[in-house]
Design a protein that fits this description.
The structure is a single chain. This protein has no helices and six strands. The chain is an all-beta fold. It has a domain of about 50 residues. The strands form two sheets. Strands 3, 4, 5 and 6 form a four-stranded antiparallel beta sheet that branches. Strands 1-2 form a two-stranded antiparallel ribbon. Strand 4 and strand 5 form a beta hairpin. It is elongated, with a radius of gyration of 17 Å.
């Protein structure tokens, strides 16, 4: 049996942020350094590999690594 209900979300703004979305920034910490951030509550950290990829870490596992490309002019 299907129970009718009102709509749970009216737009994508009402949804949880993308778990794989990573923001980046540059800071000066004894020289230039990249800073990673994520808005999703399950993101607990980041894994950067020597093949220049970055992946989001969660307590449930690591997401697929994505290529890291950063251009500074």
């Amino acid at each position: 049996m299907v129970i009718p209900s009102r709509r749970l979300a009216d737009s994508s703004a009402d949804l949880v942020p993308d778990l794989a979305a990573i923001s980046t920034g540059v800071i000066d910490h004894q020289g230039p350094a990249l800073v990673f951030g994520a808005d999703h509550p399950y993101a607990t950290g980041f894994q950067v590999t020597d093949r220049q990829t970055v992946a989001v870490l969660t307590r449930y596992g690591t997401l697929a690594p994505q290529p890291l490309v950063y251009l500074v002019r």
